[in-house]
Specification:
This is ParA family protein. May play a role in septum formation. It is a single chain. This protein is an alpha/beta fold. The chain has a domain at 11-158 and 230-265: Rossmann fold. 39% of the residues lie in helices and 17% in strands. It contains 11 helices and 8 strands. The protein has an 8-stranded mixed beta sheet, sandwiched between helices. A hairpin with a 6-residue loop joins strand 3 and strand 4. Helix 1 (24-37) crosses helix 11 (250-265) and helix 5 (116-127) crosses helix 6 (145-153). The chain binds adenosine-5'-diphosphate (ADP) and magnesium ion.
Length: 272
């Protein structure tokens, strides 16, 4: 059993990488479930119209279910759409559904279009009797208004990197976007955490990519790496995170270790 403490302040991380298929959604739901297993109260905001994070957390999100779309476009309070995951009393999700696919365009003509998520989160946090320890936002791969809303609402950028060729491609673009958001919309935003995912230690390439990322971002990279694992990839088809699906598998153990590091490091990347 690992001892971690939660200081009672809500950390908001946006899980971002402008590449698709690098493990953003997988990392969001499994880190969230792992933090809940450590005793933290966590909410996942599913900002991807595909709704994969909602699915993996066992959250119904058909077209008639109130979703983050209603929050962003119709001004619903977040409280009206948040559901508890069947996995844990400490794990919550604001689901996405199919309507969110249109939100990118509908947001364009909205008042304060970049701040709508932030406003909803601020109101929600102020209304809670029991505070949340973490909010994790699962972003779509594109830099549209949904991602900009996440960057405006969060303090920390959490970047999963797949240990494969071209892993670093697009990274300078992401960092440039973070800078732009810092300057114009959210001075607090910073890259706090990098997690190496789908690591296959048998390949030289994976080791080289890991070394290169550690060289460039020694402060931000977690020590723990997430191995490539079939258990991780099959869990969502059971509407579960790997923490619930097979808690003793290598993937679940790695996600729990990564979660411990994140909780202990605090928002600036240094050990508490
Ligand atoms: P993104 O959200 O960045 O598009 P996903 O989290 O959906 O990426 O992951 C892309 C695919 O890779 C999914 O099919 C997922 O199940 C699989 N995957 C993610 N992490 C792992 C892992 N550690 N081992 C094996 N498969 C993984
Ligand atoms: Mg995704």
């Amino acid at each position: 059993n690992v001892e971690v403490s939660f200081p009672g302040r809500t950390r908001i991380l946006t899980v971002s990488n402008q590449k698709g298929g690098v493990g953003k959604t997988t990392t969001t739901v499994n880190i969230a479930a792992a933090i809940a297993s450590l005793g933290g109260r966590v909410m996942v905001i599913d900002l991807d119209p595909q709704g994969n994070a909602s699915t993996a957390l066992g959250i119904p999100h058909s077209a008639d279910v109130p979703s983050i779309y209603d929050v962003l476009i119709d001004g619903f309070p977040l409280d009206d759409v948040v559901q508890q995951s069947p996995e844990s009393e400490l794990l919550f999700c604001a689901p996405s559904n199919i309507h969110l696919a249109g939100a990118e365009i509908e947001l364009v003509t909205q008042v304060a279009r970049e701040q709508r998520l932030k406003t909803a989160i601020d109101e929600y946090l102020a209304s809670l009797a029991q505070p949340l320890d973490f909010i994790l936002i699962d972003c779509p791969p594109s830099l549209g208004l949904l991602t900009i809303n996440a960057f405006t609402a969060a303090e920390e950028v959490f970047l999963p990197i797949q240990c494969e060729y071209y892993a670093l491609e697009g990274l300078s673009q992401l960092l440039g976007n973070v800078k732009m958001i810092q300057k114009h919309l959210n001075p607090k935003l910073h890259l706090s955490t990098i997690l190496l995912t789908m690591y296959d230690g048998r390949t030289k390439l994976a080791q080289q990519v890991a070394d290169e990322v550690r060289e460039h971002f020694s402060q931000e990279v977690l020590r723990t790496m997430i191995p490539r694992s079939v258990r991780i990839s099959e869990a969502p088809s059971f509407g579960q995170t790997v923490i619930a699906y097979d808690g003793n598998s290598a993937g679940a153990i790695a996600y729990r270790e990564a979660a411990v590091e994140i909780v202990r490091r605090g928002s600036n990347g240094e050990e508490a």
